[in-house]
Amino acid sequence: MRLQTKLVLGYAGFVLALGVLGAWSARTLSQMSAVSGHIIAENYDSVVAAQDMKESLERQDSAALFDLLGQSDRARRQVAEHRGRFDAALAAAAANITEPGEREVVEAIRQGRDEYYKRFDLFSQISGDRTTVYFQSLEPQFNDVRAASDRLLRLNQEAMRLKADAAAHIARRWFFVTLALAVVLMAAGVLIELSLSRSIVGPVGQLTAATVRLASGDLDTPAVPVRSADEIGTLALSFNRMADRLRELRRSDMGKLLVAQQTTEAVIDSLFDPVIVVDADGRVTRVNPAAERLFGARADAIGKPIDAVTRDSRIAQSVDDVLRSQAPAASEDAAATLPWAVDGARRAFRIRSTPMKDVDDRLVGVVTLLEDITHLSEVSRLKSEFIAAASHELRTPLTSVQMGIHLLLEGAPESLDERQRDILQVCREDTTRLDRLMRELLDLSKIESGAVTPQIAPIRPATLLNEAVNPLRLQVEAKGVRLEVDAPPDLPHVAVDRGQIERVIGNLVTNAMRATPGGGTIAVAAEARGDQVAVSVTDTGAGIPREYLSTIFEPFIQVPHAVGGGAGLGLTISRRIIEGHGGRLSVQSEPGRGSTFSFTIPLASTRQDS
């Protein structure tokens, strides 16, 4: 049986008795209402007016303190506002004089007000140190007016008390009659309580006792027994669940979490670089002072979408990528550099976005840091310009040296002995290597400076891989290494600069050929991966030591004991090319088991959508 049914059956006998008692009480309340209305009509408005005058007077005194502290504009606004309020309240009190002596008190307030206004205006016009004037003239007058307002308040409150006593006298007159009816109802209530105590009061008592223990901090309170399926049973079950949840919260130490949150907010505000925090819906929840210099005041940014605050699609896209992938997003390539004017100076920022997750690994927001890389960008620009200039200037004399060595070796070989020919041959190889190094340095500086713009066009991955690998097939197979290409013809088109990506694939295959002994295998493969295509070059060569994996893409890095032939710039150039396409080049390797270089390139449809 539901609790509602039990209560309806138990209290059905009270309906008639309550009707009688209600009719009798209505007559009594009617008389009481007349007295209460009399009190409100004559005294309540004056009480409210007195309180309003006190509040407005205190606000004007606060304005004087603001004026002392140098906030004159704020003081004038506050005085103008609260003088109007004080005058309105005084007018209301003057229009509702109902008690003996009240008129004299109102007149005293009016005179005190006029004197206070005069002293305040004089105080505002004084220049220099006005502290003495405030404490000797303005504050005493303020206290006098406030005291008069208090007298008006007490006068009306006392009148209300006397009228309330009259109402109490009327109430006592009907007390005994109402008491008789109440006794009858109480007797019936006792009988009903005895009949319902076992089914209702018992479980409620247990629940109450458990609630009191829980409220006192005893989280180890035993679970309340659930003996019925009615509302009391449901309430007991919910209470037990709540107690379990409270115990979990206690174990999580919410105090420490609060301190950690405050510490985190302080750290964010102290950062020199701009920081923007958004929630899981992409709306800004916090910006630090450095970000306010870029995007405006914090109050104007809170609660708005990230794209509306930053007005830059790259920042919004970075946040959206993290919200979708729930993984950090940061790019080191030049295309990810965000130029921005700050205080009239041109600055460069790098976008770094990181997801925020709770203890249950649920995404709660994203933190975006705009790393100021102005100095690094300037150093990189100067470096690229120097490398480009040096490479260009050295190519002319180097070409002359190469031509001279070639003429010496080919023009009059009979005039050279064997030692001289060996020396010239070494010189030819060194100048050739130096020429290749300068060309690669020049290419790298052009890519890093943005002088080389990818000529994007759609192409099938299978076509791209085969045309990049076929020119190297004879050279690879001549070494006794098997070259395999696995590119399904139905892979969707990719949007790339064909020449640049072929150069990357050729460089990775050439490196794999140098590292793979005869009888080994080089596998070039492509597969779809979301909105990108992943290309991998895997060899069965010597592999790369673990300590070199983190620096393998840096300029001039060469693995010890590896077969030479390059200047150490091939992987650096390849990485810059892939990053310029919006992809990522990575490596996995174990010594003795070979290496796998992988990179991603966007689908043509993805680039068109963006």
Provide a brief overview of the structure:
This protein has 18 helices and 13 strands.
Q: Could you list some keywords that capture this structure?
A:
Beta-Lactamase; de novo design (two linked rop proteins); elongated; 5 domains; 610 residues; six-stranded antiparallel beta sheet; alpha+beta; five-stranded mixed beta sheet
Strand content: 5-15%
Q: How many whole angstroms does the radius of gyration measure?
A: 44 Å
* Count of individual beta strands: 13
Low-confidence residue ranges: none
The name CATH uses for the topology of the largest domain is de novo design (two linked rop proteins)
Whole-number count of domains:
5
Based on helices, strands and strand pairing, what is the structural class?
A: alpha+beta
User: Architecture of the largest domain, according to CATH?
Assistant: Up-down Bundle
Largest sheet: 6 strands, antiparallel
Tell me the span between the first and last alpha carbons: 63 Å
Counted by DSSP, the helix tally is 18
